[in-house]
Amino acid sequence: MNTQHFKYALEVEKTGSITQAAENLFMGQPNLSKSIKELEDTLGIEIFKRTSRGVVPTDKGQEFLRYARNILSQIDEMQSICRDKDPDMQSFNVCVPRGSYASVAAREFVASLDDGKPIDVNLGETTSIDGVNMVSDGIFNLGVIRYQTQYEPYFADFCRDKGLKCETVWEFESLALMSEKHPLAERSKLSLSDFAPYVEITHGDCNVPYINVAQTENLSLNLSSKKVVNLYKGTSPFLMLSTMTSSFMWVSPMPESILARYGLVQKECDAPAHKYKDVMITREGTKLSDLDRRFIDKLYEFKNMVAFGRLYN
Length: 313
Fold this sequence. Notes:
With 313 residues, this protein is of the alpha/beta class. The protein is 42% helix and 23% strand. The protein has a 5-stranded mixed sheet with strand order 4-3-5-12-6, with helices on both faces.
C-alpha cells in the first residue's frame, strides 16, 4: 500500500474537490482520480462520494482517513527522530487567526527568539477550517482557531473527526475596529443602527464545517448593513481600515500597539454582539516542546493584556 496515496486522499478531503486537490498537489486530475480509485480498490471500500457540497468522505472513508492521518504523522515523527538535529535549533510552527491579538503574540514571540542560534519557524495566519486541516495534517504542530460560539457544535465535531485536542483560550464579544478618522470614532456609546451607513470589512473566506454558505448567512446576526468588502488571504484588514476611513470591522480586542501603528480605535456596541471563542488545537498525543509552551505563555500574556487592559483603561 502506497502511503503517498494517503496524502492524496487527505488533500481531497481537505479541499472537497478532486480538481482543486490535483492543483494543490501539482498533478493532473486524471492521475489523482486513478490513484484514489487504486486506493479504494486496495482497501475494498469507497472513500469518497459526490454530493451537492462537493466530494465528501463516506462513513468508512472518514474512518480510513483518521487512520491515514495518524500513520503519516507517526512516519513524520520517526523521520524526525532519525534526522541529525542541531541541539541549538529553535524549531517552532503555529497557525493563528488573521488580524488578531494571537497573530501579534505569534510575531512578538518569533521576534524574541535568539537570532544567534539556528531558527526553523513556520508561522501562518489562516482561516479556522484551514487551521484545523493543517494541524491535523502535521503542517503545523500547534494552532489557534476562532469561531462564533453559535457554530461551536460544528467546529467541535470537525476537530474530533480530525483527531484534534481542543482547549479554550478565550471567549469574548467582538468590538468595532475603525479608523480614528471614522465619523463614529469620537462617539462614546454606539448601537447597531449607528453602523448602517458605513462599510463593513470582513474576511470573505471564513466558512463553517458541514454547512454551506447560505446556511451560514441564515444564522448570521446581521450586525451590519449590506455594504460589505470581503478580504481574502494576503490582504491586511488594518491597512484597509486605515485607508478606507468610513469602514469598520468586528474583531477581538486588539493590543494598543496595533491601534497606534495603524491609527485605529476600537469601540464597544450597546447591543448584543457576536460572541466568539478562540481555541488552541493540537493533534491527540502531541508532545509540546519548550518553545511551544513559551509561545502559549506569550499568547495568554497578550490575551490578558487586551482583556484586562480594557477593564482598567
